[in-house]
Specification:
Elements (H helix, E strand, L loop, with lengths): L6 H13 L2 H8 L3 H15 L4 E3 L4 E3 L1 H25 L5 E7 L1 H18 L3 E7 L2 H9 L5 E6 L8 E6 L1 E5 L11 E5 L5 H13 L3 E6 L3 H9 L5 E4 L8 E3 L10 E7 L5 H17 L1
Parallel strand pairs: 3-4, 3-5, 8-9
Antiparallel strand pairs: 1-2, 5-12, 6-12, 7-10, 7-11
Helix pairs in contact: 1-2, 1-3, 1-4, 2-3, 2-9, 5-9
């Protein structure tokens, strides 16, 4: 008797494998953790094999799960491409997107890949840069859409699509001096993270100095790893071997926001991509 794999179950399986857990997969797909767990169980019943080993702190694919994963990805790509071809057969053209480097590194690869797979005739041109440069280029008409960092209280056109918890990142808990100015690793002016760090330290009466200035996320992380100072980073960017300093060591930081702005005369293709980004980021927020 022929058996059919459920595309919805495969999508949950791939998302769990990519994000490493049921809770985060549920957040991405707009379902509860228990609903995702039930879907994986249903998929395992369909294939007749266990696909994941669940531990208290980790999740690992079984040998059968590893074999299924590339097939599942291929089936999802084909499914999405077929639906896009039928429902939006004329979707094509160039979409120019500007985005901060750190946000692009952590959150956009899956969002972009999903859209590219579903709309193969659309060309995505993505530029990573500092917020100031992105804003300037957007005003000059070089982008159809732009994601920019902003302070929550600042009125900037566009919609909020992400809110970022910020932390103090250091090589270790003794990588800054007990006396003397605190060495800061920052991006060039103007930068939301730079402003947030200096304002928090000034309000707490803590002396500081700019020890290292970098225009790239990789440069900032390398300087922190070398112990040259501390930096303000999104929490998700503070991965081992870096450590996050709690509020008892340095003053707490307010969250910052990512806003999405669409050009007034954006093409229908760009507007469709904008809608896709909003929906995808809402699922992952």
């Amino acid at each position: 008797m022929l058996r059919n794999l459920d595309i919805d179950l495969l999508r949950s399986f791939v998302t769990v494998a990519d994000l490493g857990g049921f809770t985060r997969a549920g957040q991405r797909l707009g379902r509860t953790q228990s609903a995702i767990s039930l879907q994986i169980k249903r998929l395992e019943d369909q294939v007749g094999r266990p696909l994941m080993q669940r531990g208290p702190r980790h999740l690992q694919l079984t040998r059968e799960g590893e074999r299924l994963l590339p097939h599942a990805r291929q089936m999802l790509r084909l499914n999405d491409a077929v639906l896009a071809d039928i429902s939006e057969p004329d979707m094509e053209g160039l979409v120019r997107l500007g985005v901060p480097e750190d946000f692009a590194t952590m959150h956009l690869p899956v969002v972009l890949a999903e859209f590219a797979d579903a709309h193969p005739r659309v060309e995505l041109e993505v530029t990573c840069d500092l917020t100031l440069n992105l804003e300037r280029s957007f005003r000059d008409g070089r982008f159809d859409l732009v994601l920019i960092k902003r302070e929550p209280e600042v009125a900037i056109d566009g919609m909020r699509v992400w809110r970022e918890p910020l932390i103090w990142a250091a090589r270790d808990r003794i990588s800054f001096p007990g006396d003397g100015p605190l060495p800061l690793i920052v991006s060039p002016e103007p930068c939301v993270y730079r402003h947030r760090a200096m304002a928090a330290l000034d309000a707490a009466g803590i002396a500081w100095r700019c020890a290292y200035t970098s225009t790239s996320l990789a440069g900032t992380q390398a300087a922190v790893r070398a112990g040259l100072g501390v930096a303000v980073l999104p929490r998700e960017m503070c991965a081992s071997p870096l450590v996050a300093l709690d509020g008892n060591v340095l003053p707490p930081l307010e969250d910052t926001e990512i806003a999405l702005i669409e050009a007034p005369h954006a093409s229908p293709t760009a507007r469709r991509f904008c809608q896709h980004m909003v929906e995808a980021l809402e699922r992952g927020a």
